[in-house]
Design a protein that fits this description.
- By secondary structure, this protein is α/β, with parallel strands linked by helices.
- It folds into two domains: about 5-105 and about 295-320, 3-Layer(aba) Sandwich (Rossmann fold), CATH 3.40.50.720; about 105-285, Rossmann fold.
- It has helices spanning about 15-20, 45-50, 65-70, 90-95, 105-120, 125-135, 155-165, 180-190, 195-200, 220-225, 245-255, 275-280, 295-315; strands at about 5, 25-30, 55-60, 75-80, 100, 150-155, 170-175, 190, 205, 230-235, 255-260, 285.
- The strands form two sheets. The chain has a seven-stranded parallel sheet with strand order 8-7-6-9-10-11-12, with helices on both faces.
- α1 (about 15-20) packs parallel to α13 (about 295-315), α5 (about 105-120) packs across α7 (about 155-165) and α11 packs parallel to α12 (about 275-280).
Length: about 325
C-alpha cells in the first residue's frame, strides 16, 4: 500500500528519494535550502507537513511528545545520522512509534575526519596557513602521528574505524569504554585501560562516546589535569562531552597542545564568548558538525534511513543496530 514520508533533513539526495518512490512512498520535502537546518521549522509548519504522514526522515528539529501525539498516522521517525538527542524517545516508546538511526552509514567519514584533525593539529596546518596569509614565511616545528600513543574514549563503530586507520601509523592504541568489547579490541591490537591511564599516556585523545548524564563534561578541569601535558584532544562525537571553558583554560596554559572540534555544546550558536575564544585560538581547528557529511557518507545514511522507513512501514524487521525503539 502507498505511504506518505516527510523528509525534513538537509542533503537528501535524489537516489534516496527515488528509493522511497520505488517502494510506493509519496515523498514530501521541505523547501528549506541546504544551508539551513530543519530546526528552524516552527510547530505550526511541522504540524501541517506531518498531516497524514506515515514516516518522517528527520534532521535536527526537536521531535516532541506533542508532535508525535498529534499525528497518530506517524509510525516511523528515522534520524539521518546516529544521534537521537532531538527525539523524545520515551514519548515515542509510550505511544508505540518506531525511532531509527542510520547506524554504519557515516562511520568511515567521521573516522577520516578525526584522522584529518589528528594530522592537522600535529602539523599545525591551520596556523601555518594563517602565517602565510599574513605575509610571513615562517617554518613551524611540528610533531608526528607515527608511533605515538592514541587514546580512544569510547570504542564503538567509529572508534574502531579510527583504530583501523591508525595501524598505518604504527600507533599504540589505548581505549576506554564502559562496556568494553575485548574481542574487537584484540582484533585491532587495542588495549583497554581506565580513563585516567588513557589520559596520562596518550599523545592524542579522541572522543567517541554518546552524550548522556554519565558522559556530560567527561572532559573537565579534573580530567584535563590528568592529561599528558601537550596532548591533543579531538572531539567528533558530541559537544557536551567537553567542558569548553575548562578546555580553553587548558589550551591557554599549554596543558592541552591543541584541540580538533567538530562539535560544540550549544551548536549551532557561535555567540558564546568561550566558543569564540576557542575558535580564535591558534592551536584549535574546527568544523561545523561536518565529520559525517561526506558525499559518500550522506548517500549511505540517506539510503539507510529510507530503507528503515520502507521496511518498518511494510512490517519487516531491520538491522537491530538501527532500531532505537
Amino acid at each position: 500500500m502507498p505511504f506518505k514520508v516527510l523528509v525534513s533533513t538537509r542533503f537528501f539526495d535524489d537516489q534516496a528519494v527515488q528509493l522511497l518512490r520505488d517502494h510506493e512512498c509519496t515523498v514530501i520535502r521541505t523547501t528549506l535550502p541546504d544551508d539551513v537546518q530543519d530546526d528552524v521549522l516552527d510547530v505550526a509548519t511541522l504540524n501541517g507537513l506531518l498531516d497524514g504522514v506515515d514516516g518522517w526522515i528527520v534532521g535536527t528539529v526537536p521531535v516532541t511528545r506533542s508532535l508525535i501525539e498529534g499525528h497518530p498516522s506517524l509510525k516511523v521517525i528515522a534520524r539521518r545520522g546516529v544521534g537521537y538527542n532531538n527525539v523524545d524517545i520515551e514519548a515515542a516508546r509510550a505511544l508505540g512509534r518506531h525511532v531509527t538511526i542510520a547506524a554504519g552509514g557515516n562511520e568511515a567519514s567521521v573516522a577520516d575526519h578525526a584522522l584529518a584533525m589528528f594530522l592537522g593539529l600535529a602539523k599545525h596546518l591551520d596556523e601555518g596557513h594563517r602565517l602565510l596569509q599574513s605575509g610571513r614565511w615562517s617554518t613551524i616545528v611540528t610533531t608526528e602521528l607515527f608511533e605515538k600513543t592514541v587514546g580512544l574514549v569510547g570504542f564503538g563503530r567509529i572508534a574502531r574505524q579510527v583504530a583501523k586507520r591508525l595501524k598505518g601509523f604504527d600507533a599504540t592504541v589505548l581505549a576506554y569504554d564502559p562496556f568494553p568489547d575485548h574481542e574487537a579490541a584484540k582484533a585491532l591490537g587495542v588495549r583497554f585501560v581506565d580513563l585516567p591511564e588513557l589520559l596520562a599516556k596518550s599523545d592524542y585523545v579522541s572522543l567517541h562516546l554518546p552524550l548522556n548524564a554519565q558522559t556530560k563534561h567527561l572532559i573537565n578541569r579534573d580530567t584535563l589535569a590528568g592529561l599528558k601535558r601537550g596532548a591533543f584532544v579531538i572531539n567528533t562525537a558530541r559537544g557536551g562531552l567537553i567542558d569548553e571553558a575548562a578546555l580553553l583554560e587548558a589550551l591557554v596554559s599549554g596543558q592541552v597542545g591543541g584541540a580538533g572540534l567538530d562539535v560544540f555544546e550549544n551548536e549551532p550558536d557561535l555567540t558564546d564568548t568561550t566558543v569564540k575564544q576557542l575558535l580564535d585560538h591558534p592551536h584549535v581547528i574546527a568544523s561545523a558538525h561536518a565529520a559525517g557529511s561526506s558525499e559518500e557518507g550522506l548517500a549511505r545514511t540517506n539510503a539507510i534511513a529510507a530503507r528503515t522507513v520502507i521496511d518498518l512501514l511494510n512490517g519487516r524487521s531491520i538491522d537491530p543496530a538501527c532500531l532505537v525503539v
